[in-house]
Each structure stands twice: as C-alpha cells, then as structure tokens.
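Dear Dr. K.,

Following up on our conversation at the group meeting, I've run the structure prediction for F-box domain-containing protein from Lactuca sativa. I'm pasting the input sequence below exactly as I used it, so you can double-check it against your construct before we proceed with anything downstream. Let me know if the numbering doesn't match what you have in your notebook.
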Amino acid sequence: MPDELMANILQSLGTKEILKSAWNLCRTWRKICKDLAMWKVGNDDLLEYIFLRSSMLKCLCLTYLCGKGSWLTRAAKRFPQLEELHLSLGCMRAEDIEVIGRNCPRLKSFTVNKVFDWSQNDEDALAIANYMPELCHLDLCGSDVTNDGLEGILIGCPHLESLDLRICCNLNLECNLGKLFTQGIKDFMM
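The predicted structure tokens came back this morning:
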C-alpha cells in the first residue's frame, strides 16, 4: 500500500490514537507518523500532547492561534526554558501575555503578528513591558500600538535590539520616542 494512502488512513484517527497506538504498530506506520507532513495541521489534542511532553522546549512557532490563547497560557506554565515564541493570525489578551511572561522568564524573542485585539489604553503593550523585560527581539507587525504603549515597551524592555512595527498605523515617531530608539535598537522596521 502506498505511503500516501496509509497516511490518509492514519489521519482519520485522532491524535492520541496515532501517537499511542498506530505509532507502535509497525515500522512502516512509525515512519509515516514521523513524517512532518502528518502534523502540518495541529489541533488542540496534538498541541496538548506536545506540551505535556516538552518541558525543555526553547522555541515555539504557531501559525494560527484561536480560543483567546487560554490553552497557550496553560501550556506556558510548563515551558520555563522557552526563549522564542512566535504567533500569528489569532487572538491574545494582556492577561495571556502576563501569564506567558511570568512563566517564561528566559523569553528573548516574541512575535505577535496580527494577534492582538489591542485596546485603546495599550494594555497589551504594557503587559509586554511589565512581564517580558529580557526581550531582545519583538515583532508587533499589524498591531494598533500607540506611542504610549511603545514608550512603555522601550522602557520596560531595555535589551531590545530588534523591533518590527510594520503596519502599525497609530504611531507617530516624530516625537520624543526618537531618543529612546537611539539607546540600543539596532534593527528597526516600520
């Protein structure tokens, strides 16, 4: 039987069945289970399975995040070694950022492209400033961050070297923020 057909059969099983049963059935099925194409779409079961077994995870990239980040914040408590977190196309709140920041103290790189439901008072930006002080790289592409939120981030994250603010329409960098940028941002995109 061709591998593609067997992969289709395996994909009809649930994540737990694949990882606990089919994986151990034979070498051929194990080889197919190891193929990255089997896992391009990660459902909540798969993510939870990975999170429960990945306490030493250092980098996590998720393309689509839904459910207001609640499962991610539960998982973040298990990732004290996490250094990079990259999220795009979904939603997240200031409370989620706080939990991630508190539980992932080694976080150096944070990407949140079009993820936030930014509020007028920059709660999300201030959560980054208050709970992710070790950041070196921050990507807020597509956010509604304002000058106040950005100023908080620049003050609260003194190690920032790289900052991506493309498609951030609520910023006016012709004011006093220019002084803060000269204090260490080496790679700036807007």
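Two things stood out to me. DSSP finds nine helices and six strands in the chain. The domain at 43-189 is CATH 3.80.10.10 (Leucine-rich repeat, LRR (right-handed beta-alpha superhelix)).

Best regards,
J.T.
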